[in-house]
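Risk register update: the risk of archive-format incompatibility is retired. Evidence:
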Amino acid sequence: MPRQGLNRRKVLEAALLIVDTEGLGDLTMRRLGQQLGVEAPSLYKHVEGKADILDGIIDLVYEEIDFGDAKGEFRDRVRSYAKSFRDSLLRHPNVVQLLAMRPVTGKTTIELVEAALRELTTLGLDPQDGRRFLNVTVNFIIGHTLSQVGEQQAPFEEIMTARRQFDPDEYPNFSQSLASAPVDHDGEFELGIEMIVDGIERTVAALVQA
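Archived output:
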């Protein structure tokens, strides 16, 4: 049955639902029309096409990110932002690869970039340096989450069996690094964010002293 009051947001939400439940490869205009109970051509009243839908999906995921308390310490705010970003990606694992492949173009995404750059420039960084640190942070969050999602799609014992096939005499450090428990994704993520914040603070301190 056709949906009443169809609009752009409802189209994008339906598209995100398909990606979440069926996968990115199953998102087509025809499948989206079926989900909404309309013919595919009628969707073009609300979206320009597949690329527009993909950008809109990214915006929906980014809307879930919480910047936290703007009055807190800088390090705590970065931790809060990074955790919220990662949590939103883990809620939509099929979208993570899309984020890694598409450039930033959506309105919500640009608004988040602007807010982050405003935060970084208040520390003393110019917008160009701020953008570089922002890129490092965002790329780390997306890359780390992409790695985690990929590992979760394969059984842990299967991964460990494949890794243990390498000769420990030839690769002693790698062999000793293999733990009996799954990778501590949370711990590694927190370590990475701390290292990034350390780098930002060192750069700002150097600028102040210059």
